[in-house]
Amino acid sequence: MANDLWRGKWALVTGASSGIGAALAEELAAGGAHLVLTARRARRLAKLRGKLRAAHGVRIEVLPADLAQPNAPAEIAAFTQERGIAIDLLVNNAGIGSYGEFRASDRERELAIVQVNCSAMVHLTRLYLPGMVERRSGAILIVSSTAAYQGVPYMATYAASKGFGLLFAEALAREVEHHGVRVCALCPGPTASEFMKAAGVPDDLSAGLEPADRVAREGLRALAAGEHTVVSGFTNWLGVEVQRMVPRRLVTSAAEMLLRPPRRRKSLETGK
Length: 272
Hints:
Blueprint: E1 10-14, H1 19-30, E2 34-39, H2 42-56, E3 60-64, H3 72-82, E4 87-92, H4 107-135, E5 138-143, H5 156-176, E6 181-187, H6 195-199, H7 212-224, E7 229-231, H8 234-244, H9 248-259, H10 262-270
Parallel strand pairs: 1-2, 1-4, 2-3, 4-5, 5-6, 6-7
């Protein structure tokens, strides 16, 4: 199995307290990997550590950290260095989003999306990649999204940040593969997690969610196989392929109609 590739090695998973991050931690622990888990919620991390230790007998370190804070990546790196842990697999999973008209959005929230989804990802990668190259062994999984392939009205900053992650992963994968390091962008569609609720996406737009464990397995499989990107789920893959053949403006227009907030829909219908 793909998760066996990291048996006896250390993996660092950000955003590990729920959703895809927790599912990735579960898959890796089942394959015998030791884990460093980080997220904002200390209780969730402690609960997950207890569960995975009991089920799989692997070593697990946890560090509560908020990647919206610029110094958090350096604190995480110092944490692993102090414990003599060489990270063989970095999983840049932590991500946040927001839903609604950008002009009325919370400015700090929009900037935090860029900090967590882009800046922290780049910072952590820069901290851990040199050691992997030196050892001529290692892997980096960047959790992007199918939103990376298009502009998404009402989630503009989030989609742009995921596009950044996708292109960053594709470039880095080619740059370091001859050093024995794998890099892959995992692009799931809507997934059963707490992300949609936290981002404020209405319930009627959250149907047909893919299970997080399925997404996690597909990401690890693709990374182990040396793929540079993978879209999780056939329907999601098909959607990405179809939109490549359609004018970008049409794709964005369709997304706007699909994601239009209820208040905005009503105002367009009434002309007020």
